[in-house]
């Protein structure tokens, strides 16, 4: 018989997997933040732009006269691409010092002039031009080499091996996951299934599908990371794909770091929002860790119930998240005071809309700290009867005898009559009515009922069962058997089993259970009925005809 774990046990398995998934998300966001770091913004602030060869930034050029850094870099990059694409012979990079400023030439074509704004402190213009010439010559030679057939064949083979290896690794990861992780989740669920004494049949519960779902998400994230690494490696091996990748990342990075959202007097980009989300996610996990430490180091030694501990931890988490969010928003640069009016209007609207939620929240606190009902109690609320599975600050979950989970608002337990069969003690008394036929031996009936109660293992011997003769009924002598049980949720099953035993006992001892019946007793010999003259005449005529027919039948038989 499978038994549902408590909510705390469910979370004990669910949260570690969720933490792993959250950690991967934070790592990915940090990587994205690093990859899309605002270097173009810094370049714009410094009025510089990169010279690029096949996706590799070589050096930065600055603004010169009426030409911006971007214009100089775009023209130089265009010339480099055309030269590398159209020339199969070695490309020569040299410096023309016959002009006012050193000019870098690529196969005799003007690439760019080296100005004083391009030179850092402590270096001359000539030295800077010579350094750039060497860097360009080396980059162009590498670019031409990467376009040779031997290089393409070798790197194509390596790329194919990497893709096959990524495919093999993901397949093996699937096998490892199914062999180790999934069975571990199943064992973790089943290992705690027998720790509670609550009634449950073999009906799947929600934690297992939820854990499976989180596990599949984590597996998908890991496989996605493997394929991203493989694809990034392959695209970085070829000049064309590397240039496309660089352009794509540069465009995406420019989109992310462009100010797109205005809050108050500040402008924020999409990357700022990504970093803010990462910080808020980290704050949520930090608050969860603090809550766990609060429970394990402090609350476990206070003697509070599990529901009370959960409520305190939940309130502590909300408080930490609220305060931490305000601090993060201020550090992020958002002026909180500019949102005061908006927050006030929003607060009034929310206040009007959450009156019901506030009512349930207060009711939940009363239930948790006064404890009129607790997790594991067998209760009856209106027409519902079942075991309390979970008590939260807003609602309470009850699992009925039909194994159906019913979520009830907490206020219902305070505003209506609630029968708690387990309050204080789970020992409860059941009344089993039974009727026997008139004329039965009452002592024999009493002994049979007591013997039947003794045969059932779920019926307590202390307090002992008792039999009361309730009186003379219309059809039977009415008795009532009082028994005591320690598992109220089994009362219907116990009653059914007991009736089977009583029926067997009565049959063995000759005790009859009567059918419902009514006896009619007349004080005089005649019924006081009045018959109409017409009916009397009809009956007389009918009787005469019947006598004639009988006489005729007798004469016919005599003649034969």
UniProtKB/TrEMBL annotation:
Pfam families: MS_channel_1st, MS_channel_2nd, MS_channel_3rd
GO biological-process terms attached to the record: transmembrane transport
Domain Mechanosensitive ion channel transmembrane helices 2/3 positions: 317-355
Localization annotation: Cell membrane
Residue stretches making up the Mechanosensitive ion channel MscS domain: 357-423
First-listed, main subcellular location of the protein, grouped into a coarse class: membrane
Bilayer topology term: Multi-pass membrane protein
Alphabetical list of InterPro entries matching this protein: LSM_dom_sf, MS_channel_1st, MS_channel_C, MscS-like_channel, MscS_beta-dom_sf, MscS_channel_2nd, MscS_channel_C_sf, MscS_channel_CS
Keywords: Cell membrane, Membrane, Transmembrane, Transmembrane helix
GO cellular component: plasma membrane
Transmembrane segments: 12-36, 151-169, 213-234, 273-291, 312-333, 339-358
Transmembrane helix as UniProt keyword: yes
Domain Mechanosensitive ion channel MscS C-terminal: 431-512
Signal peptide, first to last residue: none
Family: Belongs to the MscS (TC 1.A.23) family.
Protein name: MscS Mechanosensitive ion channel
Record organism: Gloeothece citriformis (strain PCC 7424) (Cyanothece sp. (strain PCC 7424))
Source organism phylogeny: Bacteria, Bacillati, Cyanobacteriota, Cyanophyceae, Oscillatoriophycideae
């Amino acid at each position: 018989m499978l038994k549902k774990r408590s909510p705390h046990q469910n979370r004990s398995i669910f949260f570690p997997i969720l933490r792993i998934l959250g950690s991967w998300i934070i790592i990915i966001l940090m990587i994205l933040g690093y990859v899309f770091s605002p270097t173009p913004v810094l370049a714009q602030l410094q009025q510089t732009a990169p010279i690029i060869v096949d996706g590799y930034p070589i050096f930065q050029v600055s603004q010169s006269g009426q030409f911006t850094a971007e214009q100089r870099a775009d023209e130089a990059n265009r010339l480099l691409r055309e030269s590398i694409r159209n020339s199969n012979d070695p490309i020569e990079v040299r410096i023309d010092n016959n002009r006012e400023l050193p000019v870098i030439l690529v196969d005799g074509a003007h690439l760019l002039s080296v100005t004083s704004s391009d030179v850092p402190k402590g270096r001359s213009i000539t030295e800077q031009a010579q350094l750039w010439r060497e860097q360009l010559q080396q980059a162009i030679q590498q670019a031409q080499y990467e376009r040779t057939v031997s290089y393409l064949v070798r790197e194509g083979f390596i790329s194919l091996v990497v893709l096959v290896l990524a495919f093999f690794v993901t397949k093996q990861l699937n096998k490892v996951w199914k062999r180790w992780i999934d069975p571990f989740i199943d064992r973790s669920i089943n290992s705690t299934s027998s720790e509670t004494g609550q009634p449950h049949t073999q009906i799947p519960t929600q934690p297992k599908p939820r854990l499976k779902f989180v596990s599949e998400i984590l597996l998908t994230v890991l496989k996605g990371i493997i394929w991203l690494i493989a694809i990034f490696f392959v695209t970085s091996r070829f000049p064309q794909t590397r240039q496309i990748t660089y352009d794509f990342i540069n465009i995406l990075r420019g989109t992310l770091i462009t100010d797109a959202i205005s809050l108050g007097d500040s402008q924020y980009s999409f990357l700022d929002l990504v970093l803010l989300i990462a910080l808020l996610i980290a704050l949520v996990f930090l608050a969860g860790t603090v809550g766990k430490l609060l429970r394990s180091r402090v609350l476990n030694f206070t003697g509070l119930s599990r529901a009370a501990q959960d409520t305190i931890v939940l309130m502590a988490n909300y408080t930490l998240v609220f305060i931490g969010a305000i601090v993060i928003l201020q550090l992020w640069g958002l002026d909180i005071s500019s949102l005061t009016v908006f927050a006030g209007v929003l607060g009034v609207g929310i206040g009007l809309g959450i009156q019901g939620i506030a009512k349930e929240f207060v009711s939940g606190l009363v239930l948790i700290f006064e404890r009129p009902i607790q997790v594991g109690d067998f209760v009856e609320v209106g027409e519902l009867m079942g075991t309390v599975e979970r008590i939260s600050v807003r609602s309470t979950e009850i699992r009925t005898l039909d194994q159906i989970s019913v979520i009830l608002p907490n206020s219902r337990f305070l505003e209506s009559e609630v029968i708690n069969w387990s309050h204080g003690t789970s020992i409860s008394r059941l009344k089993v009515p039974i009727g026997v036929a008139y004329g039965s031996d009452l002592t024999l009936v009493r002994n049979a009922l007591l013997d039947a109660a003794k045969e059932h293992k779920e019926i307590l011997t202390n307090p002992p069962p008792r039999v009361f003769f309730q009186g003379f009924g219309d059809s039977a002598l009415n008795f009532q058997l009082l028994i005591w049980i320690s598992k109220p949720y089994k009362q219907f099953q116990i009653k059914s089993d007991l009736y089977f035993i009583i029926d067997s006992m009565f049959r063995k001892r000759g005790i009859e259970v009567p059918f419902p019946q009514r006896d009619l007793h007349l004080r005089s010999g005649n019924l006081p009925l009045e018959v109409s003259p017409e009916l009397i005449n009809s009956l007389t005529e009918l009787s005469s005809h019947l006598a004639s027919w009988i006489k005729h039948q007798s004469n016919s038989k005599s003649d034969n």
